[in-house]
Amino acid sequence: MSKIAVTTSINGDPAEFLCDAGETLLDALRVTMGLTGAKEGCGSGDCGACTVMMDGEMVCSCLVLAPEAEGKSIATIEGVAEGSVLHPVQRKFLEHGALQCGFCTPGFIVAAKALIEKNPDPSESEIRYWLAGNLCRCTGYDKIVRAVADAAAEMRQDQNSQRTAA
Amino acid sequence: MNAPVTPKAFKVVGTRPVRPDGVDKVTGKAIYGPDFVAPGMIHGAILRSPHAHAKILSINTKKAEALAGVKAVITSADFPGQESKVLAGGETSSNQRDIAQICMADGKVLYAGHAVAAVAATSEAIARAAVALIEVTYEVLPHVIEVEEAIAPGAPLLHADMYTKGVEPASDQPSNAAMCFTLARGDADAALARAAITVTGRYKTPPVHQGYIEPHACVASWNADGQGQMWVSSQGAFDIRNTTAAVLHMPIADLRVMPLEIGGGFGGKTTIYLEPVAMLLSRKAGRPVRIAMNRQEVFCGTGPAPGSVADVTLGSDADGNFVGLKVEFWSQAGAFPGSGVHSGVMTALGAYTVANAHVRGWDVVSNIPATKAYRAPGAPQIAFALESAIDDLAVKLGMDAIDLRLKNAVRPGDPGPMRLPHGAIGYVECLEAAKAHPHWSAPLGANQGRGVAGAFWGNYGGPSTAAVSLSSDGSVQVTTGNPDIGGSRASMAIMAAETLDVPYESVRVAIADTASIGYSMLTGGSRVTFATGKAVVEAAQNVRETLVSRAASLFGVDTAEVEWHGGAAHCLSGERKGESLSIGAIAAKAGQFSGTITSEVSINPLDYLPGFAVHICDSEVDPETGHVRIVRYTAVQDVGRAIHLDYVEGQLQGGAVQGIGWALNEAYVFDAEGRMENPGFLDYRMPVASDLPMIDTVLVEVPNPAHPYGVKGVGEAPIVPPLAAVANSVRHATGIRMRELPLSPDKVYAALRAAD
Question: Which chain B residues are closer than 8 Å to A132 by Cβ?
């Protein structure tokens, strides 16, 4: 069976890979591209550990076929920090102890960043429902919810001070 | 109430610094079990039984072997012969022969999902295709799932040579009951007959899975010279090494295990499933072999926590003093014995003083996956029954549910489950903190109820090794052998920094492989911050003593004239009085002394103390649907002393939520053929963020005098109370005592209709 050549963009960089027709985007990222930050917890779209962004939409990459990435823009956990500068969501996860084993953390961080970009001032309930597709078995979610709320608050403050400065 | 026994100001203990492995874990760089790649590795896949109970008549692997790309095929015939021998492994011990048979069925399959054969091939797709070409002929046997059926006369027997241990007179008939364990004191029957008030009931819980998000995975490489390496995410590389070497009849030192980051374990990653299989495939293929499970394999091929049936009768006098307790329970061990019956029995006797008690537990095999430890193994099921019964008793007495527990709670000096007196325990302090918490007296809304439940968990200590070495600039390297599942690197760094009185950031922590440091028992039993922490502190103390002695030599004074604080030695007398030498300055002069300052400490501390917890739960029951929503939750626990506040609170919160899942949603569901019907996260529904409120925590600190910083284990106790706390809140909301978990909407709705 011949492979399919896919031309795409990953974390802002041009990328090309070969894949089987039935291969998942998650496998293409993890195995072919060596980006193992996205995890496979279930392979059925129930745990959210494989969450990535595709053209600005949050997807479970285990449910996306690798050939679907053709011409799209993919963003993974590896691209969330800018160089060595952590994104506020990453920093707040650390400051709040919002991870224990850390396996679900990449998926949560990608999802939380997407939430704050869509809704800069989410309520606790909005955070909980947005993250309901991400399973964490260690934390009971309490510190994750606090970290996301705190990151959103800091990002709002940064935007306000930038506006004031402008 | 929260005051430590010896109040002392700490600089780092009890703070919330960022964990040393944090950045790796928020940026996706950390390497977990399924992430590891070895050069030249090939891929394994496992054929699993579709039947719950069957004889294997034949296995034909010829077609699989002939498929292009297949490098090795193995069955149980490739395993060395196994003797029946008990291996220690965490809180539960297992028989070596059983472990080998869980890795690969030998002659008979005992559950749907049991491994039957395995393939290694140049790609995962080829390996899976080859697995499908293996032809197995089965003779399907009658199967049994529930314990009540498994112990009924004429039940299908899983093991023809199994006779119940622990019964008098000895049994002469084979049975699915592997063992029974009894603890008795006084005369329970007579006391219950005299009791002013008694409550009684039969409680049931289904098997539930630990539900770690990372599926099992390993890479193994076994060379022609007999030496092997494995890269595994587990709760303990040493115990994985020892068990794998035992099953494969290898000298232990011939196998080196590299620990990878672990994506949750909760007891489920204390044993081996894939490791000997990958090793045998690797030896046959001459290549490193990787095997990774998918979620269905995790549910059907690894050990969940046992289901249970428990009969409880509790009696008190008219004032609410417990006078008699009788508990008999049957634990659904799965395909092989060893389901934590002892700790279940201890749970019944751990938290309350009762002069007359008879507690007996039975370990019963049936055709479900061999169960394994799950956070406080054996305890939540029994606490569900006991703490529900106490709630019923409080209702009958018209007493506050916390007051009733306070009246009967164990205090220091009271006999523990094995009659040894309790040490510096803090159950009373927990109950008082729960009673004083605003949650206990807050108003409730419509259809809401409030429940409370307590918990005892024994905790553990055991062997640990830790090394502390100074670099030439005075920065500190701490090395242990315990995988970090929930922030233990941070706790170790805190304790080393506190002991050496240096900044937290100058201490770095590594988890060594099995060839790089002495043995440590696995990460489990709530033991790491206690036992491994003790080893770290002792090693750091040794390093500090060497620093002081070298400083004294450099100052030209006696060591008694040198004081250590602020990460520096201070000279108290002589010509250089008032001068100081920093840790870095002393470390840099290692060449003038007997070399680098380092200390490796191996200890086996058994002076751990049990954990006690009290949880308060508010739930709201929808009368239209039977859906139970948790609206407020508070977890109180005696933690001895919290080393890193976030990760201690996190243990309480995570344990509480796992218990809420156990109470409300989670269960293995089997079809008529004995196959699990819900082996995925859609149908095996663990709590998600939108199911839950914030989980409030109260850390009660009654320090353990046997630990330099007062640590008691914290990880397991928090899963013990939630089952009853939730059920008691539903009882309060509806007036209905539900005795069978999970309290799923269908069951609650049916109970509401039946009560109409």
Answer: 688-691
**Interchain pair B27, A38: CB under 8 A:** no
Domain boundary among A79, A108, A131: A79
* Boundary-marking domain end, from A59, A79, A99: A79
Of A77, A80, A138, the CB nearest to B264: A138
User: Which B residues, 455 through 494, put their C-beta within 8 Å of a C-beta on chain A?
Assistant: 485-487
Cβ of residue B18 closer than 8 Å to a chain A Cβ: yes
Strands B562-565 and B568-571: antiparallel
Domain that holds residue A135: 88-165
CB distance B593 to B713 below 8 Å:
no
Closest CA to A28 of A70, A83, A57, A56: A70
Q: How many CB pairs lie under 8 A apart between chains A and B? A: 182
Please count the residues of chain B: 756
> Looking at the predicted structure, is the pLDDT value of residue B1 above 60?
no
* B14 chain-A contacts, CB cut-off 8 A: none
Residues of A in Cβ contact (< 8 Å) with B266: 137
Q: pLDDT tens across B295-332, in order?
A: 999 999 999 999 999 999 999 999 999 999 999 999 99
Confidence of residue B4 (pLDDT cuts 50, 70, 90): very low
- Looking at this predicted complex, what is its ipTM? 0.98
- The answer to whether residues A110 and A52 touch, using CB atoms and an 8 Å cutoff, is yes
Q: Judge whether A135 and B686 are in contact, CB under 8 Å.
A: yes
Residues A69 and A92 in one domain: no
Which domains are delineated in chain B?
A: 22-29+461-603 (3.30.365.10)
Which residue bears the tokens 């948790």? B630
**Hey, are the CB atoms on A86 and B27 less than 8 Å from each other?**
yes
Over 80: is that where the pLDDT of B548 sits? Answer: yes
Which of A103, A125, A135 minimises the CB distance to B32? A103
Is some CB atom of chain A closer than 8 A to the CB atom of B656? yes
Is B27 in contact with A77 (Cβ distance < 8 A)?
yes
Q: List phi, psi (to 5°) of B228.
A: -135, 160
Strands in B307-316's sheet, in edge-to-edge order, are: B177-185, B356-365, B322-334, B307-316, B197-205
Distance CA B339, CA B365 (A): 9
Give the total number of structural domains in chain A. 2
Tell if the pTM clears 0.95, that is, is over it. Answer: yes
Residues 261-300 of B with CB under 8 A from A: 261-266, 294-295
